Amino acid sequence: MTTAVDKARARAAGQEAVCVSHQLPVWTLRLHLSGKRLWHDPRRRECGLCSITTLIYDGDRLVDIEYCQPAAP
After folding, report:
1. How far apart are CA 69 and CA 60, in angstroms?
2. Which of 6, 29, 51, 59 is the most exposed place for a label (fewest CB within 10 A)?
3. What's the rounded Cα separation, in Å, for the pair 70 and 29?
4. In 10 A of CB 47, how many CB atoms?
5. How far apart are CA 48 and CA 35, in angstroms?
6. Within a 10 A sphere around the Cβ of 40, how many other Cβ atoms?
7. Tell me, what DSSP letter sits at residue 1?
8. Per-residue model confidence (pLDDT) at position 6
9. CB 64 within 8 Å of CB 50
10. What is the distance between the alpha carbons of residues 73 and 48, in angstroms, rounded to a whole number?
11. Eight-state DSSP code of residue 31
12. Residue 42 pLDDT level (bands cut at 50, 70, 90)
C-alpha cells in the first residue's frame, strides 16, 4: 500500500490523487503511517463502507491523516 501511495503521489505531482481499496488495506496503511501496531480488533476499525481516508503531505512529509464518512446516516 505504501508503494501504491508513493506511485500515485509521483504520478499526480502536486495535484490530488484518488486511490480506491478495500477496508483492511486502508486500515493497515493508516496504522503503519501513524506508527501504530498492525494487529488490531477488526470491530474497532475506523474504515467504514464508502468512507474516505485522506493522506495530507507537505512536500514528501506526511503531515496529517483525515477520515470521514460522507454517506453515513
Report:
1. 26
2. 59
3. 21
4. 19
5. 21
6. 13
7. -
8. 93
9. no
10. 12
11. H
12. low
- Stated length of the chain: 73
* Residue position matching grid coordinates 503503519: 32
Torsion of CA 55, 18, 42, 38, to 10 degrees: -50
Q: Report how far apart the first and last C-alpha atoms of the chain are (Å, whole number).
A: 29
Can you list the pairs that 1-10 forms with residues at least 24 positions away whose Cβ atoms lie under 8 Å? 1/25, 1/26, 1/28, 1/29, 1/32, 2/29, 2/32, 2/33, 5/29, 5/55, 9/57
17 pLDDT higher than 90: yes
**24 band by pLDDT with thresholds 50, 70 and 90:** confident
